[in-house]
Amino acid sequence: MAGIAAVMTRSFRVLFVCLGNICRSPAAEGVMRSMITEEGLAERVSIRSAGTAGWHTGKLPDQRMRSAGQNRGYDLSSRARQVSEVDLRECDLVLVMDQQNLRDVCSYDRESQFGSKIRLFCEFCTDHSETEVPDPYYGGEQGFELVLDLLEDGCRGVLRHIRSSLP
What is the three-state SS of 34-59? Predict the structure, then answer.
């Protein structure tokens, strides 16, 4: 039991958040999970995603996003869920995809105690100048590809942040 507790206390927890948890955030979860696994950190880092709205709770990511992710070797099979105040308390880093997601997630922080861990995902991008990850839901195939390009860039930055935060 002590071994399990030690792993739990060393774990770094990341949550990716978008509107419905069917495009951007589950793709970020899949990209990050792949990078964490490649780095041998899967036992020390927890990766999840959620949406600010609960419309799609229990559903798989959008088929177009799953296809685009699969073409790049990512498993996008998480089920949609809605973010909660518990997520803010338990996670070390909460990465939102756009300004509206930021406002929505901050509304769960009623006592303003989690602000330092809630950040815009694009803050971690180094190869792209976008400040938000655009929602590809109503666009064409190229929108999903752009989202994956941004996620791969930003997740490399998130990985550097995680490595510097782990003991």
Answer: HHHHHCCCCCCEEEEEEECCCCCCCC
